[in-house]
């Protein structure tokens, strides 16, 4: 099922995979700026190009007025040299010689490369961000595979410690209350801007979290960016696959209190038991073209269906009040963290909570019956760091981040019904005919196949964390990347092409760039350790590999990466009716962009982590949170590919971390 991710790679640039679904970036715990008294830079932008961008910009006024540079186009020679170096761990001498010849031909004065570079630089002069529109259209909206697993990541919160449905609803009400506080901090500009190493970062993604929606289309989707049209604002709550409209603000403009929200949720639970639990939401898990056809049929069925589809679109976010998942309590036991990742990433199938989702919505808050909570987010407009930051805010405000146990946990079903009569959420039914019910059944089958194929395992490595790594004067991110390089080499006796996302938010509306974590230096290190070279030699090579990775990451974040530049050259050729450069279609390119390790870092001081599917069927996804005294990593692979096994990989990563500690101590 995850082969669709490679199709996205081919769509973007032959076999260049930019993996938008997990482009998380470097750090969530970024220091905040103290001075926001800046003005927005002025640029001469072509009016037609401006009109093309406007649909993807938030309608909210941007309160973060400080100048940011535009995304640069790196020098051509620099990119080609870095690209060639990145191929050395994977290609034979003969293949390298062939690629070098293609690159030299491309770079000749007055040749194809110079022309494409000039056209791309001209585009950069006309756009505040030359990549943005391409990135949205080619990386996301034209992508046809299902959103869950392939596009939408899950972020798992620290486990919450309530014991019954009242505790679940009070926790959900507290989360919603603090989300609305966070939203007000964003809209008012009171949320301190993110920064990285003293440099201000673009905050535009924060303005797109609420009210945004991805609308399915036959050949490409459309994106609706949330604005200030909600009057009063509301959320959609799903429970037992049934949808409800729930206000979060009185008509006077005053926010609902936490207790009032709790009453609304009580009303949802009471009403949901009286309605059929046909999982209309599971239709959003279909491939995008199929869902577009089904969406049209659903809307054409009656005016009520159209109205309720519009309400989901206009809602601030979707709250998923999940039911107990009996499947997780039977059969082969998994860790609590692994079970949580399944619930948040895809709902664990049609017999569990996959139908209690609306994957088109940019933000879904999941509050499970068993303490499992998290985000599932549609990736078109936002990366992980804003959602990690909001998660930390709401969890800490709710209960110090260690698991919330509300004191009101003794209500019986009768008491819930009694309280729920005070306020009633509005039921949002859909009228269904036999063909639509059959489409829902088909979507259930497809979702269950997808869920079955995803092999998820969460590694909770508690022997040491980033404090120890820093004490050895090494980068925790680079160090962990070497651990997963070593693990893969031990299992498969090969160096894996590796994608890691770096943040590009120091540029205006920047998203991400690729860190090619596998390098000559990393290959030298893993080969020497496996060959049992001397301790001093292995330590030297590990240090060199870590430094090389750190330097590459810094270049990527500073606008000197290579993969977005290569994408721009390719799409420039397509736009101008030119041939795609030959070096982007040869074995070096296809090999080095077959991302057998698809990775990112999500930093938090809480027991939280991200999970997503692998990029290719014969590879692994790995998102990790290096905490002070432990490292958590969500690891995924496909069961349909016999050679991959997420638990075995997690165990080998843990063994590699232990061996590396001995090296650097």
From TrEMBL:
<dbReference type="GO" id="GO:0005777">
    <property type="term" value="C:peroxisome"/>
</dbReference>
<dbReference type="InterPro" id="IPR042231">
    <property type="entry name" value="Cho/carn_acyl_trans_2"/>
</dbReference>
<dbReference type="InterPro" id="IPR000542">
    <property type="entry name" value="Carn_acyl_trans"/>
</dbReference>
<protein>
    <submittedName>
        <fullName>Carnitine O-acetyltransferase</fullName>
    </submittedName>
</protein>
<dbReference type="InterPro" id="IPR023213">
    <property type="entry name" value="CAT-like_dom_sf"/>
</dbReference>
<feature type="region of interest" description="Disordered">
    <location>
        <begin position="329"/>
        <end position="353"/>
    </location>
</feature>
<dbReference type="InterPro" id="IPR039551">
    <property type="entry name" value="Cho/carn_acyl_trans"/>
</dbReference>
<dbReference type="Pfam" id="PF00755">
    <property type="entry name" value="Carn_acyltransf"/>
</dbReference>
<feature type="region of interest" description="Disordered">
    <location>
        <begin position="39"/>
        <end position="66"/>
    </location>
</feature>
<feature type="compositionally biased region" description="Basic and acidic residues">
    <location>
        <begin position="39"/>
        <end position="57"/>
    </location>
</feature>
<keyword id="KW-0012">Acyltransferase</keyword>
<feature type="active site" description="Proton acceptor">
    <location>
        <position position="379"/>
    </location>
</feature>
<keyword id="KW-0808">Transferase</keyword>
<dbReference type="GO" id="GO:0019254">
    <property type="term" value="P:carnitine metabolic process, CoA-linked"/>
</dbReference>
<dbReference type="GO" id="GO:0004092">
    <property type="term" value="F:carnitine O-acetyltransferase activity"/>
</dbReference>
<comment type="similarity">
    <text>Belongs to the carnitine/choline acetyltransferase family.</text>
</comment>
<feature type="domain" description="Choline/carnitine acyltransferase">
    <location>
        <begin position="71"/>
        <end position="653"/>
    </location>
</feature>
